[in-house]
Amino acid sequence: MNKVRILHTADLHIESALTAFKSAAEIRRAELLDIFGKIIDTAKSENVDVLIIAGDLFDSCRPSKPAVSYVKRKLESIPEVKVFITTGNHDYSLNIDFPENVFLFSNGIKKYEFESFDFYGAGFQSEYCDSNMLKNFSVENPGKINILAFHGDIVEKGQTSRYNPVTREELSETGADYVALGHVHQFTGINCVNNVSYAYCGIPEGRGFDELGKKGVIIGDVYKNRVDLKFLPVCKRECIETNIDITGCGDYDEICSKIYECAIGGQNIFKINLCGTVENQFFLNTNFIEERIKNDYFYVKVIDLTRPKIDIDMLKEEYSLRGLFVKKLSEQNGSEEALRFGLGAISGEKVYFNDN
Length: 356
Ligand SMILES: [Mn+2]
Description:
The protein folds into 3 domains: 4-233, Metallo-dependent phosphatases (Purple Acid Phosphatase, chain A, domain 2), CATH 3.60.21.10; 239-308; 312-346, no CATH class. The model has no long low-confidence stretch (mean pLDDT 93). The chain has a 6-stranded mixed sheet with strand order 4-3-2-1-13-14, with helices on one face. The protein has a 6-stranded mixed sheet with strand order 5-6-7-10-12-11. A 3-stranded parallel sheet has the order 15-16-18. It has helices at 25-45, 65-76, 168-174, 252-262, 286-293, 312-315, 321-331, 336-346, and strands spanning 4-9, 50-54, 82-86, 102-105, 110-113, 117-122, 145-151, 153-155, 165-167, 178-182, 191-193, 196-200, 216-223, 226-233, 239-245, 269-275, 277-278, 299-304, 307-308. α1 (25-45) packs parallel to α2 and α7 (321-331) runs antiparallel to α8. By secondary structure, the chain is α/β, with parallel strands linked by helices. The protein contains 8 helices and 19 strands. α1 links the parallel β1 (4-9) and β2. The radius of gyration is 26 Å and the shape is elongated. The protein binds manganese (II) ion. Residues 55-56, 88-90, 151, 183 line the site of manganese (II) ion. Manganese (II) ion binds next to loops.
């Protein structure tokens, strides 16, 4: 049966600044380039026919010479693979002399025809694209396998976006068998609307705590009217945000052992939120904790979200509004939450309630 084997990636954002990683930023920047090499090697070992890079390959329109020459060299190493690159809102004007196996889409929709499939793509020409690039597009040879790639936002009808807004209805009208999307940095699952399958593959390496979890690419086969595609994790490190309850920990030794117990995998990038209650007199210094554990992690950031323990027995003896409140509440077996809200309100804090 006719099929096209593809690897779909996007949003590599090569040469992102990553300043939040401080001393680890240089290494992480190098890793963003390195993952490109790994993806190319995967395309080769998995024998794909087509490699799709759906925008924001580079973080800017002016990537450095070393980065460009590495990217070109890796693309040259897979001459048997057809590589389709669309520009995104970050790299909308790339001035790169790509090797012969690369097809670049840097403006309105364009088609390349091959024996077993047609490939369409459209790219950004500036930082923003307020109107839909597809503009009533539908494939010219509906009997063939058709693949479409672009960078942009899938929106609801009537919703706007500055990044090429396209609705599901418009995707369905393209008649493509697979639409390879870029711009959203999270894998969305393989979705389908009227035989048109579409997906965001997400970024292949997380660049911060807004890009959490395992990152990867989409790989598999595109057939006429259906796909057999899966998510393949390729990232070297995961960005992980985790809450660690340190209630009961009396000193830094205990807190650090608790962290080691809960935040496993030192190669990963951690944001650790310490939570729970601590004794009033225990002074928590997150810089000191980071200093103690930093050699065991590629990068670790520690945030103090703990709350001081409330000494009810002491408070209810107080001759004050606060004392009276605590006394009344404990007589009625009030909840810990009610206690915190009440004490907060009495001390003049803003108190927020929500239904969840
Ligand atoms: Mn983008």
